[in-house]
Design goal:
Blueprint lengths: L5 H13 L7 E2 L29 E3 L9 E8 L4 H11 L12 H8 L14 E9 L7 E2 L1 H13 L12 E7 L4 E2 L8 E5 L2 H4 L4 E6 L6 H4 L22 H19 L6 E3 L30 E2 L5 E2 L1 E2 L4 E2 L4 E3 L4 E3 L7
Parallel strand pairs: 3-4, 3-6, 5-7, 6-9
Antiparallel strand pairs: 1-8, 2-10, 8-9, 11-12, 13-14, 15-16
Bound molecules: 2-acetamido-2-deoxy-beta-D-glucopyranose (2 copies).
One 2-acetamido-2-deoxy-beta-D-glucopyranose binds next to loops.
């Protein structure tokens, strides 16, 4: 999670200590949309996207996902078939090496640069797992960080077709529909990842939550396909799959899955001294989607004949996904870099 200032960090810590025992490992698409944030902490003198001598991303000896990864999905609330398709095809594109360049699989190559203690890389294989529908809002339309774990528990312990328990290489992706509020949604985060507590769920399962912001705050969480009201005169860009909320979720899902793969139990790859608020491989590149990106500039993007903005190709669709920190070269990289 991007930390705008020391004061904010302290306040956040205080809030965490006093309120919830759960760290906020969250994300918003553009750091400058955060109240009071200065532009990217790296300043203007960078040569490469996000490059900085101050970033010390380190490996903390915990596991990373080196075996074939399976993403199980929980659809919470009302979801249309067309929306599920956009998201499922995105996840299905992570390993689709034959997709047109620049591809989602090319984007996943940056994640694969991360290794565990034995030198094994993050897996190239990401598969779509089982799906669970929670159409009737089993835990209401307002979820907390803790009740999210109860939603996951319901999904893995359901009487009919429970999601499989797969603690070592399974990821659990909870997606909430546009009428569901989640603690800190829109204010601090558009999504976050963590792992479930055995005391609540019965297992330690790495999971992420990402919400559809279409009704609550598209200008924040579906930027640049929607823009905040205060940015008068700025026009939203056309989204590649015709669904502002879902197209906006795509980059957040990419962000969270990349971090889950490299830091599933929050003790592997992160920067900063503080495991309560680790800075992870996607946090370091928030707001960067192409060459030259940084500050409030997203970088060089692609524009389709239909006017839609994107930066990579999936199996059948186009997507706009933020770049990721490449610890080999110490800057953010993505498949649509112009210097490749
Ligand atoms: C595995 O990680 C190492 C270290 O980052 C990297 O040099 C190598 O290219 C990676 N292998 C693959 C297949 O990505
Ligand atoms: C420097 C700056 O922009 N400070 C603003 C931070 O946010 C508060 C309220 O959200 C404003 O009152 C400050 O002016």
């Amino acid at each position: 999670m991007h930390r705008p200032s020391l004061l904010l960090t302290l306040l956040t810590l205080l809030a965490l200590l006093t309120a919830a025992p759960l760290p906020a490992i969250g994300y918003r698409p553009l750091p400058h949309l955060r109240p009071n944030s200065s532009d990217l902490r790296f300043g203007d003198s960078k040569k490469y996207e996000g490059s900085s001598d101050f970033v010390h991303l380190r490996y903390h000896m915990g596991p990373v996902l080196t075996g074939s990864i399976t993403v199980h999905t929980i659809w919470y609330g009302q979801w249309q078939k067309s929306q599920k398709k956009i998201i499922r095809e995105f996840i299905g594109s992570f390993s689709a090496v034959n997709a047109k360049h620049p591809s989602v699989a090319g984007w996943w190559d940056t994640v694969r640069l991360y290794t565990d203690q034995t030198g094994a890389n993050v897996s190239r294989t990401v598969r779509l797992g089982e799906q669970k529908n929670d159409r009737f809002y089993s835990h209401g339309k307002s979820l907390t960080r803790l009740s999210i774990q109860s939603v996951i528990k319901s999904a893995v312990t359901a009487k009919t077709k429970p999601l499989p328990i797969n603690p070592s290489n399974g990821l659990y992706l909870l997606l909430t529909s546009d009428d569901v509020y989640v603690e800190d949604f829109c204010g601090q985060v558009c999504g976050f990842h963590y792992f479930t507590f055995p005391s609540i769920v019965g297992y330690t399962l790495p999971f992420a939550w990402v919400g559809n912001s279409a009704k609550l705050c598209p200008g924040i969480c579906a930027y640049p396909f929607a823009v905040p009201e205060y940015m008068q005169g700025l026009k939203p860009l056309k989204s590649p799959n015709g669904d502002v909320g879902v197209d906006g979720m795509i980059s957040v899902i990419g962000h969270e899955v990349a971090e889950l793969a490299t830091n599933p139990l929050v003790n592997a790859w992160y920067a900063g001294q503080d495991p309560v608020a680790p800075v992870e491989i996607a946090d370091l590149c928030e707001g960067i989607y192409g060459t030259g990106g940084g500050g409030s500039y997203m970088g060089q993007l692609l524009k389709g004949k239909d006017g839609a903005t994107y930066n990579m190709n999936g199996i059948r669709r186009r997507y706009l996904v933020q770049w990721l920190w490449n610890h080999v070269v110490s800057y953010c990289t993505g498949p649509n870099a112009l210097d490749q």
